[in-house]
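The following record pairs a protein chain with its ligand, zinc ion.
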Amino acid sequence: MNSIKICPLSSGSSGNCILLFIGEVKVLVDCGITGKAAECELARAGVNPKELSAIIVTHEHIDHISGVGIMCRRYRLPIYATLGTWKAMINCIGKIDPLLIRYIASEVPFQINGAQFHPFSTSHDAAESIGLVFSDGEKYGAIATDLGTVTKHIFDLLLKCSIIMIEANHDEAMLLSGPYPRHLKERILSDCGHLSNKLCGALCAKLVREGALRKIMLGHLSSDNNTPHLAYETVKNSIDNALCCNAGDITLFVADRYSMKEEIGD
Ligand SMILES: [Zn+2]
Ligand SMILES: [Zn+2]
């Protein structure tokens, strides 16, 4: 049986919500979809929302928080977020019982019912955004979407992870030739924006070669500047080139935009 598992319920600018299984513990990372959609996708994943222990929020952008308040109130789920994220989202998620507010800080590990988390700060253009490494005490996984750029520190943290959900946001050529205004293109390409397919591929190839990475879920694809096929092929080519001929051991999926389709576990 898998002891850690990443199960994306929805991924992309229309809404992000990821279900994590860490031993017996189940948590949501972000809930940028309606409560109804979250319940529906949880059911598809075989999980009753009452079994959830918490929602961890990576940052306050609307595609990550629109359903957080509803799920919190409906199932009395504690919400874990950094102080900066709390300040930025508190007026956008409705009334929250103060007893359900939990503060976390980047680089300060915390536990939820025995599941271990190590939040790390990201350079994404939000108040105090984080990515997450999580563990059942034996195996490690990571959520690394809305990264902007990958520092040496983040890379070192990801080395021990065997499963990862990572952003392959855009194809650079599609973004540059597409309809977005110049300032938006520049923001997306900057260190405060998102990882391109190419940067994601280079990172995955390095993690596969130098670290424990074996299963990859690509997510947070732009609907205007990317396609699942392009993201998959770009990252696969990078890994194939880095490994010469052993890429058969590596599992690579693209998370579905609206629904729970594939999951990865270890
Ligand atoms: Zn964001
Ligand atoms: Zn986002």
